[in-house]
Amino acid sequence: MIGVKVVTRMTVIIKVNPINPEREKIKIAAEAILKGGIVVFPTETVYGLGADALNPEAVRKVFIAKNRPMDNPIIVHIAKKSQLFELAKKVPKWVERAIDILWPGPVTFVLEKKKIVPDEVTAGLPTVAIRMPAHPVALALIEESKPIAAPSANLSGKPSPTTAKHVIEDMYGRVDVIIDAGDTFFGVESTVIDATEDPPVILRPGPMTVEELQKITGKEFKIHPAALAKGSVKVAKSPGMKYRHYAPNAKLILIEGAYEEMLRKIKEVFLRLKREGKKVALLLTEESKEFLGVREDVINLGTRKNLYSVAKNLFKSLRLLDKLGYEAGIVESFELKGIGLAIMNRLRKAASEIIYA
Ligand code: TXA
Ligand code: MG
User: Fold this and answer.
1) Is the minimum distance from the CB of 48 to ligand 1 under 6 angstroms?
2) Termini Cα distance of the chain
3) Cα–Cα distance between 164 and 194 in angstroms, integer?
4) pLDDT score at 236
């Protein structure tokens, strides 16, 4: 936000056990939330930067610390089902049934909001996004404080943080507390579902896949065109859709196409950039690295045998590109199904150029 001064804060870093969080440590962070402070905490997806969801002043601090545009609403994190009904009105029956299976977990429902939810959280929308995170630390923190409004704990536009180290890079001196509980589990943010529509609409693909959601709920989901992140979006149902996201400083080139053609194209572009004297890296799975027979300037994305490994490494790899001083990175693409859809959504948004092989 232009013209808004970021307050320099004394940041306290608290290391906690991710499986069995020490209550007395959680209470220090909870105290900060209850006093209107802002706290970074781990979830099973990525780290979040949280404030008391019912305290507009505190929520405003979150936007300022992240440099986030005020018109991009944030998710409210809860620890028990009753909190859902305190915040949302008209929870459809199918959602009630679904959350019994899906929560705690990486699924966010957009629902009609009740009056008590401040406009700062929802950016003035009549709806509120809610999820119950499946991380012992997040749940303990909410239990010891209040429902917590939290976007991902990165500076706006940067890759989401999947480890406390990333958070410290972005947020040290901007927040009151950082809870360090090691690496997050999934590495990409929750699946966001607009449940005010019937059929419901996937606004952002995430760890809980469309295929799984359909099986669990018996519903046919629609996928919002913006969730595919193809081309520019004119009408953004989720305000977050219209902003460039996850971008490293290095130029990120995404190569799409059938597998072998894609790999040949990657090699061609890589050699061309090298000839031009650019410091360029390849972001590849083990299989693709093997296929291309490259040894140097490769950042490992994981394995195609389990694309959840790629999701987990994704944001870390984008940050690594900058840390290693590369001017450009060339990244392979994945099929738009299962967790591949979430990976491609993030890659297409992060890319400064997409080349079709
Ligand atoms: O996994 C996650 O969802 C992480 C962790 C911290 O929980 N949070 C996260 O928050 O990714 P954030 O703010 O980076 O992304 C929230 C997304 C944005 O795309 C936003 O536009 C959308 O959810 N959203 C929030 N409230 C909404 C609403 N009322 N209607 C439509 N979209 C909404
Ligand atoms: Mg985010």
Assistant:
1) yes
2) 38
3) 30
4) 45
Give φ, ψ of 130 to 5 degrees.
-135, 140
CB of 156 within 8 A of CB of 141? no
93 Cα: distance to centroid of ligand 2 (angstroms):
29
* Residue from 59, 238, 346 whose mutation best tests the ligand 1 pocket (most atoms within 8 A of CB): 238
Token pair of 80 as six digits: 């028990």
- Which residues, 6+ apart, have CB-to-CB distance to 159 below 8 Å? 166, 246, 247, 248, 314, 315, 316, 318, 319, 350
Question: Residue 44 CA: which ligand 1 atom is closest?
Answer: 1
- The model's pLDDT over 42-61, given as tens digits with 9 standing for 90+, comes to 999 999 999 999 999 999 99
- CA 19–ligand 1 middle distance (angstroms): 25
Closest C-alpha to 222, from 261, 193, 191: 193
Nearest CA to ligand 1 atom 15: 151
Cβ 339 under 6 angstroms from ligand 1: no
Task: State the Rg of the chain over Cα.
Answer: 20
Distance between Cα 242 and ligand 1 center (Å): 13
pLDDT, tens only, 79-106: 999 999 999 998 999 999 999 999 999 9
Between the CA of 202 and the centroid of ligand 2 the distance, in Å, is 16
Which pLDDT band, with edges at 50, 70 and 90, does 235 fall under? Answer: very low
127 within ligand 1 shell (Cβ under 6 A): yes
Going along the chain from its start, the domains and CATH numbers come out as: 12-228 (3.90.870.10), 251-356 (3.40.50.11030)
How much of the chain is helix, strand and coil, in % rounded to 5?
35, 20, 45
Query: What is the SS3 assignment for 337?
Result: coil
Q: How many residues does the chain have?
A: 357
| Share above pLDDT 70 across residues of the chain, in percent, rounded to a whole number | 94
